[in-house]
Write a structure and sequence with these properties.
This protein is of the alpha/beta class. It folds into two domains: about 130 residues, Rossmann fold, CATH 3.40.50.2300; about 200 residues, Hypothetical protein af1432, CATH 1.10.3210.10. About 55% of the residues lie in helices and about 5% in strands. It contains 17 helices and five strands. It has a five-stranded parallel β-sheet, with helices on both faces. α3 runs parallel beside α4 and α6 runs antiparallel to α7. The chain is elongated and about 65 Å long.
Amino acid sequence: MLSDKLLCAKIMVVEDNPICLSMIGEVVKLQGYQSVELFSNPVKALDYFTNNDVDLVILDINMPQMNGIEWMQSVLTLQRDFFPPIVVLTAESEDEFAEAALELGAKDFVNKPFKSAILAGRIKTHLSTHLKMKEAIVRTKDLEQEVVLNTEQLEKVRTEVLERLGKASSFREQQTSNYLLRMGNTCALIAKQMGFDDNFVDMILASSPMHDIGKIGIPDSILKKPGALTDQEWAVMKTHVHIGAELLGDDDTGLMKMAREIALYHHERWDGSGYLNLREDVIPMSARIAAVADVYCALIAKRAHRQAWSTEMAYEYIVDQADTLFDPEVVEAFQDGYEDILELQLFYADEIRTS
């Protein structure tokens, strides 16, 4: 049964085919949603979106006047603090358009002809995530306003919000809180070894556990899939870095700025082979440090699809990938401080293999 918040969510459907539009509207209304707007004209739909607070958009790709890609490009020019999830409708022959839509920020895609149960499930998943994010952001802003005159208290609130959101992402991915402690503290140890001041070390300790917060917005069917992902599923998975950056907002204070940098860029690689193809010094230092810590901590943790690596194997992998995947300066600091890093892993261990 849907909660009252879900039932009151504002949904809009943009589809030029009247039969398909009617079918989608029927699916949505049968689930009990009370606020559903149907548009066969994408221009009118854009005008409605511009002037109203919408919680989810179901968008067709192939439309006259303005196709789905053009519609999304227009939406991105709007001044919004937080955009609702967009679920794209595509035919099998329109895969390339689906991928383009995902790159523009679409959260998911549904192939035509669609199954009512699948569409209903996707709507519920993305609405639930969006409303939780929306509530968290509103609450964060309220808290910031309450303590705006007290910098120390404000930083404490930001840190607590980051910790809670980090735990939310770990629960979603079925990780333990110890994983976040290992990852955050490993970042701090590397930063300290590199000679960064206490402020930088404290900030990366607090912000780095937020690296995968964007996975809150990835469907379970992809996030928890035991086998290999398809190209389209992988395209959806990679959007978690954008979701994370969007969720963390544009607060320009040091802590939140670093958290956003790490969320967006922790999958960048020294040789430019990462998600966004940034390379070398263009990648923020915080993200370069987080990349090493995240990969090391992930390798020595047991996952549903593989056994944990030994600490020795994971160490050798990090060292071998210096100057290819990882900043060699960060890897050198990792090596120099490895005795403390290993002690940390064992202290916060779940099932860490040492050999």
